[in-house]
Design a protein that fits this description.
With about 130 residues, the chain is an all-alpha fold. The protein has four helices and no strands.
Length: about 130
C-alpha cells in the first residue's frame, strides 16, 4: 500500500482499509436522512412524551418481584438481595397506591406478601443449616 492510502475512502461496510472502524458508524443516518428501522430524533422525543412514570414503575415492580424470587432459588440464593427487592416493592407500591387501578395494587400487594413468606422460609432454612 502506498503512503496516504489509509486516507482514501474506505471500502463499503464501514471499515477502513486497515480494518479499523470509521469515526461515524455506517448505520447512523446523517442530518435529514432516515434509515428504515432507526427512529428519528423527533420519533424518540414523541415516544418519550407518551411514557408514563407509573407504567415504568409497574414494570420495575414486575422485574423486582421476578428477581426477588430468583434470589430465593437454592442455586442463586442471596437473601440480602431478596430483602432489598421486598423493601423496594413496598416503597414503589406505596407510591403507586391510588395512581394505578386498585386491582393492580391488590395483585402487587399479594406478590409482596408471598415473597415475604418465601423469604422468611428461606431465612429459617438458612438458620437451620
Amino acid at each position: 500500500m502506498t503512503e496516504g492510502a489509509d486516507s482514501a475512502a474506505p471500502p463499503s461496510g464501514g471499515q477502513t482499509s486497515s480494518g479499523g472502524r470509521l469515526n461515524r458508524p455506517v448505520d447512523t443516518p446523517s442530518e435529514g436522512q432516515r434509515h428504515e428501522g432507526i427512529p428519528t430524533e423527533r420519533e424518540l422525543k414523541d415516544a418519550l412524551a407518551n411514557i408514563k412514570i407509573s407504567d415504568v414503575l409497574v414494570e420495575t415492580m414486575q422485574g423486582l418481584a421476578s428477581l426477588g424470587y430468583h434470589r430465593l432459588d437454592a442455586e442463586t440464593r442471596d437473601l440480602e438481595q431478596t430483602r432489598l427487592a421486598i423493601e423496594a416493592l413496598k416503597a414503589i407500591g406505596g407510591v403507586l397506591d391510588g395512581v394505578v387501578p386498585a386491582e393492580l395494587t391488590r395483585d402487587f400487594n399479594q406478590v409482596v406478601a408471598n415473597l415475604q413468606l418465601a423469604y422468611a422460609s428461606a431465612v429459617t432454612e438458612a438458620l437451620a443449616d
